[in-house]
Fold Homoserine kinase.
Amino acid sequence: MAGPAFRAAAVRVRVPATSANLGPGFDAFGLALGLYDDIVVRVADAGLHIDIAGEGADTLPRDERHLVVRSMRTAFDRLGGQPRGLEVVCANRIPHGRGLGSSSAAIVAGVMAARAVTVGGAEAMDRNAVLALASEIEGHPDNVAACVLGGFTIAWTDGPQGGGEAHAVTLTPHQDVVPVVFVPADPVLTEVARGLLPATVPHADAAANVGRAALLVEALTHRPELLLPATEDRLHQDYRTPAMPLSAELVARLRAEGIPAVISGAGPTVLALADAGTAEKVRAVAGPAWSANRLDMDTEGAAVLPLAELAEGSAEAGAPGPGNAVSGTPTGESEL
Ligand SMILES: Nc1ncnc2c1ncn2[C@@H]1O[C@H](COP(=O)(O)OP(=O)(O)O)[C@@H](O)[C@H]1O
Ligand SMILES: N[C@@H](CCOP(=O)(O)O)C(=O)O
């Protein structure tokens, strides 16, 4: 049987950073943030060529091991076949191994791009299918859901043990919420942080998280004044403290001052859910050892954009600017 046809034109995909868990919603909650990776993909006659600017330019492989490419390959298989060659250009702004969903963004970018360059790809694979496939590759659906759908997402998987097909709903976060992130210079890989979690947890801790997670849905969408109690967690953050003691200390200090702060994803980034009135206090409480970066919330999720916008929104990967760069020592206009 003949494989699929491919578009000759290049496609550009933009994917947001995400903060998973948000305290009690382990492997379920995600929030999309206004910080983006861009990839441009073109089907070629032969070979694989990868260009990388920004995060990971010095470290990522430029061959079939590259996560965007691996994800594209999986998606092409599902869509009926591989193209003869590929050119991939990555402009990376989401820091790696910091708990801001860089791996999910890379996976979603790859799946979205494969779908966009395949004739009939969007019809063959709708957004729910993108979410399911990207979650399967990532292994947990929380970042992927927020990355695909934007906004504040609640994800779940089928099956008695979880591991089945992923689904999600997206809600609109309250407009007064101001995410502020503190990104440590050194990474902690998600795999390592997941390895610190126990196989079982006390029933009382699970019960406490159920109540807080339910409350967080109301707090993040309608009543941000409840965010402090709503972001309490007993399932993962304490267990991970040995891998990120300074982040844990900052979370405790911010919370003691009444600021809803959590470990972002598997860490070590700290996320504070401030508002216009407290954003400056957040910076002051954190002190000079930490750089505070205020980010917008993203409500669109992964998008296939016209190539023309690449030139217009052409902030160099890694260059500081609103929504354009966060690094171990963030600087620029997005800094508080
Ligand atoms: N844009 C990207 N392109 C290729 N690989 C990526 C990209 N972003 C992340 N990765 C891969 O994912 C790893 C980080 O994933 P992970 O430990 O889950 O941290 P994060 O919290 O940033 O998702 C990187 O070390 C790299 O191997
Ligand atoms: N629920 C996951 C979230 C991992 O997010 P990341 O941004 O650190 O990849 C976990 O807590 O392990």
User: Anything to note?
Assistant: The pocket of LJ64HWYM (ligand 2) is lined by residues 20-21, 26-27, 99-101, 103, 140, 142-143, 190, 193-194, 236, 265-266 (CB under 6 Å).
